Amino acid sequence: MKLKNSFSVDLPIETAWKILLDIPAVVPCMPGAELLAVEDERSYRGQMKVKLGPVAVAFQGRARLTEVDEARHLVRVAASGTEGKGRGSAQAEVVFRLLPEGQTTRVEIDTDLSLAGAVAQYGRAQGVIADVSQVMVDAFAQNLRRRIAESPSPSGSGSAQEAVPAANAPALSLFSLLAALIRHWFSGSKDVP
Amino acid sequence: MKPAPFDYHAPQTLEEATALLATLENAKVLAGGQSLVPMMNFRYVIVDHLVDLAKVKSLAGISVADGRMRIGAMTRQREIEFSPEVARHCPLLLKAIKNVGHRQTRNRGTIGGSLAHADPAAEMPTVCAAHDAVIEITGHAGTRKVPFNEFGIGFMTTAVEPNEIVTAIELPLWPQGHGYGFQEFARRHGDFAVAGAAVLVDCDKGGIVRRASVTLCGVGNTPLRLPAAEAALTGQRLDDAAIGAAVNAVKSIEPTSDIHATPEYRSHLAQVLLARALRDAAGRCGKLD
Amino acid sequence: MGAKQFGARVSRLEDSALLTGGGRFVDDTKLPGMLHACFVRSPHAHARLRSIDASAARDLPGVHAVFTADDLPASVGGNRMPMLVPNPAIEASLTQHCLAREEVCYVGQTVAVIVADSRYIAEDAVALVDVDYDVLPMASNCRDAVKPDAARAHSALANNIASTFRMGYGDVDAAFASAAHVFKEDIWQHRGGGMAMETRAVIASLDPSTDLLTVWSATQTPHIGRRMLADLLDRSLESIRVIAPDVGGGFGPKAIFYAEEAVIPAVAMLLRRPIKWIEDRREHFLCATQERDQYWTVEIAVDGEGKIKGVRGKLLHDTGAFVPWGIIMPYIAAATMPGPYVIPAYGLDVTVALTNKVATTPVRGAGRPQAVFAMERLMDRVARELKLDPAEVRFRNFIQPEQMPYSVGLTFRDGKPLVYDSGDYPQAQAEALRMINYEGFAVRKAQARAQGRFLGVGIGNYVEGTGLGPYEGVTVRVLPSGKVAVATGATNQGQGTRTTLSQIVADNLGCRIEDIVMTVGDTAAIPQGVGAFASRQAVNAGSSALMAGGAVRVQIVKLAAHVLGVSEDEIEVEDSIAIARGGNRPSLTFRELARLSQGMPGFSFAPGQSPGLEHTAYFTPPQASYCSGTHVVETDVDPMTGAVKILNYIVAHDSGNIINPLIVDGQIQGGVAHGIGNALLEWMKYDENAQPLTTTFADYLIPMATDVPTCKIAHIESPSPLNPLGVKGAGEGGTIPAAAAIIAAIEDALSEFGVHFAETPLVPERIVGALRTAGAYEKLGGLR
Amino acid sequence: MAKHQVSLKVNGRSVEREVDSRLTLVDFLRGELELTGTHVGCEHGVCGACTVLIDGRTARSCLTFAIQVDASDITTVEGLASADGGLNTLQQAFQDNHGLQCGFCTPGMLMSLTELLKDNPDPSEEQVRDVLTGNLCRCTGYAGIVAAALDAARRMRTGA
């Protein structure tokens, strides 16, 4: 499953690049994501909780930065995780690409997501995964912007916890995220609000 | 396909039920179980506690007062199907409920369960959207009433918090003799609709639409009201031109896709079904059943 | 003779128990000390197994054991499973391990087994087994899989080609070169399943006092299962008893011997406890074998009158990850293509592709529905292009009854020349057309069109090789009680095997049908057996029942004549009594005769007499017998939604002589239902990673009561000269031409828009899509 | 694991048992009471093989937990036969009209039609098929079942 998402941050590209590569600080911005361990500077163990309607799943696994190309402002991540209750697994190959837009930066995310096992067979949810991914990316971007606003120094990762506390991340009820999705529906437009 | 372990609670009163939900971790309400239990058997849903509302007798029943029909959340779909009140006052609900699953599941399934499960193709939420229903939700802290357009907030996701219960549905009734139409397309009898349309119209004696309600199901993550279609009908005679204008409003929607249908097909079906529902409504408008 | 049972609408002997909850399906058996198993299955379509950590699962209270391949005895844990029907054309003869070693090649492949106090606990434990997979690239779509740079379905193989072969005869290229017209069709048919209402099921129990391993299995082939178990468990045949009790539908997938059928007995032996495994529906969607996945590119060459000069093309068959049943399906498909038509030259190049999906093996029809669909689509194309009536094109090309026996020019899958033994194809089609009032259809269509409805009619013809050998045995034994014990290797998944064989034995032995005590599906009852597939039981077991019943009757006549002191031709046998025709009609009951036949200690038998009244017969057919028929379908298509309603379904069916019309009609009607599913509803979908997507009955749609009309059925009876009953198989004919006829009818209903269809299932969305492309909605003045 | 006491009536017989919360009614009937006539076909409420009557109304026993039917009255296929143990009218009509082949879906079919014929002694073919959509059959193509239902209704009406 190929997913395309993007967002913008009000930072020049070099600053944005540094912030985004501060993985321990960035991860908690993702709703449902939690960093469990830093294995080395390129490898991380973490957990990702996702809720699709009544179905709540939690994937634990590894993410590895397989390519960090500062010149092209491109990061390639290989992530894979297993669902904690034996309901399958997820594998993702994610490419983050930063593009300068004047004093702001556009972040493009290309994801190749593969689900396996029971989670892949949840037929009625197949269609909403792409929508949910964009809602999550939007929330991520919002949290990231808040983090940037509160802590202009990329090294000050402490305040990231305040942006969206990791423990509460899954509780960041997808209600509000999905409400955004619905508004997007009602707008009848494909553009991200 | 056996469910994961959980404990079972059967409160006798609403107070007991909400108290349980306020204290238990990872608990879920069990109503008719026709949607929840399959998901538990597949272990898509894993809970630590089930709070069964079957013994909370105050939650079942249908009554009509002050231009509203109140349906208790634990009212079985079968009771709605055979309710004279529903037939008299809310024919759209009667028409729609015959499409809900099968007789064997309607015997157990409840309207509250259908709403809380909030499947995007389900008939009961669609009727609620069409009727501007108000959903009564009760938690330990008290009862709140949520207009339906704030109730369904996403794919199988509602405004009901984990420690709350849907307790009743209030349907503001339309005048006697209103027109209605419900059309859905399912691959087989009783399957979830690929798409569907629910229509209410109130016409004056000259056949001019005073008020219209147009809702689609199956095309979005929740039932979709179509204000543009309603506007296109209001003040018009329900003729081909007006129906065509209303159907045009569907084209601006970008439907969901899943393994059963592409957005293009869903849009196509929604247009066809809306046209048919509107023609049904036109034929019924002003006639007292 | 008593009332003749053969040919009568005898109501079924099976029914009373099944109607009162007294059926005995595998899951109905509960043994003392029995434990319950659940399998750990691969979530990936293709992955290397790095490690399996089952410690947490083993620690769960209620769990007795967890086994991986290495924990099983080497014979069953180390070897690949035997292939059932080897063929020299198979290049990659891969079957799976009972529990995966090193590599998993489809979603659902067995990796480990958990044994616990209950299935509930066993499922809890599955989530605790930590399997470390290294996900490998996978082959999902067979058209991509055969490309040179495709990801390989098995890492040990150089490519995904399991087999290539050519089937044909005559100078095809010359036929095409000289033809007036050549038409080409691209045809695809998707996967579906057997979807018996009862899932697979196995119980195994080892009796330590006798060392007898008893296995109850919901299988079509208990004797084959026993042979497989003897190989895999390294035991003698005599130490294994396989019982197929009441089986809740078969339809092909239960003819396969599966990994679970070996693992459960192995585990029962290791733990010395009876073990039960009941497949759940999700497992059935993942792991029970499937069928139909084929892509055809075929051409037909005809003269100016629509007479066929030749047929040629390519067939790509998706066999899935393994070839447990060899390549018989594409083989059967290729051999079925010529059907009832005179085709002077024929050539089909077949490629069998490996993909990372569960294996395809025969499902009701077994390759034939695809071939018939391909051939009949070509016939309809010829009719359309030459502006001929589709029925007329077929009449012009039928093999005529006087050409029987007709040698097609191919070798069938039984290794014998493909020779149609009997049949009257023009008569079947004429009868079906008469029954649907084909002549009046144009008027009906026009009248409906005036009301805004779209009616269409479609025809499907087929010839089906049935009654395949090698044999099926029947033992008939008169018991000292006077009852008649009948045992057969034939099995019963709803076909009424007990009833039909009882009818034959009653007639040929001369007993009351209610005196028969039948054992089916039990390897202890008869030493040799094959099982239910290829519509073979009426021909094979039926003929053996005739032979065995007749042989015991001869024994009875001899004994009765001797005891009563009359000549043998004086003796009549009926209603379980032997009666002398003359004098005061002295008689002996079967009970008396059976006791006499045991002999008395110390006394000699009469010359020529053998002990007991008993005979076992194994009929071995010389080749397949070919049943045939015509389906004609009338549909009402809603072009706005793509909904298809079948208004009228006619079957003219020729399966030779009919043992029991009630049962044959039921087989046809049920087969048609399966064909309607294939034509309109059933689609086993996979994503690009070969993950199955339709794993519930809400996503994989099998026909409901509102989808299947009651068929009108006519029987044409062209007796087969190849067996003493003159019968042919009837179990699959209902399915085989259904999709061909239905899709043709849909196309005909929408003929004014010029849309064409060459796929199954033909889902409403595809109908609407084709109409939109054809500009139909503009012609119809918008959506309504 | 939480256990609860249930007491109920099954085919007229009083039953008391201690059950796990998560034990489904069908597993309770089959495993605990050894009433194996009720079958498990899909465990997600579509196939209908597990259909039983709860207080006279059909229900999926795979979608009902045993604990939920405390104080209820359950009828299974074993409770249908006539007083003398022979086939009842509906069951006899199934045999006469070849309404079953493998017999696996049959108990569920009988329960659904028992409810229908009680509510509606003279159903149309359309009404019969409508009810039968709640029960899947893979063998028969439904023709014999539909015929049996209509035949049984006629026999019950006429007392034949």
Describe what this molecule looks like in 3D.
The complex is a heterotetramer of chains A (193), B (289), C (784) and D (160). Chain A has five helices and seven strands, in the order E-H-H-E-E-E-E-E-E-H-H-H. A seven-stranded antiparallel β-sheet of chain A has the order 1-7-6-5-4-3-2. Chain A has helices at residues 13-20, 23-26, 129-150, 160-163, 174-187, and strands at 2-9, 33-40, 43-52, 55-69, 74-83, 89-101, 104-116. In chain A, helix 3 packs across helix 5. The N and C termini of chain B lie far apart (46 Å). Helix content of chain B is 33%, strand content 25%. With 289 residues, chain B is α+β, with helices and mostly antiparallel strands. By secondary structure, chain C is an alpha+beta fold. Among the domains of chain C are: 398-465 and 624-784, Aldehyde oxidase/xanthine dehydrogenase, molybdopterin binding domain (Aldehyde Oxidoreductase, domain 4), CATH 3.30.365.10; 469-619, Aldehyde oxidase/xanthine dehydrogenase, molybdopterin binding domain (Aldehyde Oxidoreductase, domain 4). Helices cover 28% and strands 25% of the residues of chain C. In chain C, 63% of the residues are buried. At the C-D interface, helix 1 and helix 18 of C face helix 2, helix 3, helix 4 and helix 5 of D.
Write the layout of secondary structure elements.
The complex is a heterotetramer of chains A (193), B (289), C (784) and D (160).
Chain A: E1 2-9, H1 13-20, H2 23-26, E2 33-40, E3 43-52, E4 55-69, E5 74-83, E6 89-101, E7 104-116, H3 129-150, H4 160-163, H5 174-187
Antiparallel strand pairs in A: 1-7, 2-3, 3-4, 4-5, 5-6, 6-7
Chain B: E1 7-9, H1 14-23, E2 27-30, H2 36-41, E3 49-52, E4 62-65, E5 68-72, H3 77-81, H4 84-89, H5 91-97, H6 103-106, H7 111-117, H8 123-130, E6 134-139, E7 142-147, H9 148-151, E8 152-154, E9 157-158, E10 164-172, E11 179-185, E12 195-203, E13 209-217, E14 224-225, H10 227-233, H11 240-248, H12 263-284
Parallel strand pairs in B: 1-3, 2-3
Antiparallel strand pairs in B: 4-5, 5-10, 6-7, 6-10, 8-9, 11-12, 12-13, 13-14
Helix pairs in contact in B: 10-11, 11-12
Chain D: E1 3-10, E2 13-20, H1 25-32, E3 51-54, E4 57-60, E5 73-75, H2 89-96, H3 106-119, H4 125-132, H5 143-158
Parallel strand pairs in D: 1-5
Antiparallel strand pairs in D: 1-2, 3-4, 3-5
List its traits:
heterotetramer, B: 289 residues, alpha+beta, Uridine Diphospho-n-acetylenolpyruvylglucosamine Reductase, domain 2, Uridine Diphospho-n-acetylenolpyruvylglucosamine Reductase, domain 3, 3 domains, 5-stranded antiparallel beta sheet, 4-stranded antiparallel beta sheet, C: 784 residues, Aldehyde Oxidoreductase, domain 4, 7-stranded mixed beta sheet, 21 helices, 31 strands, 28% helix
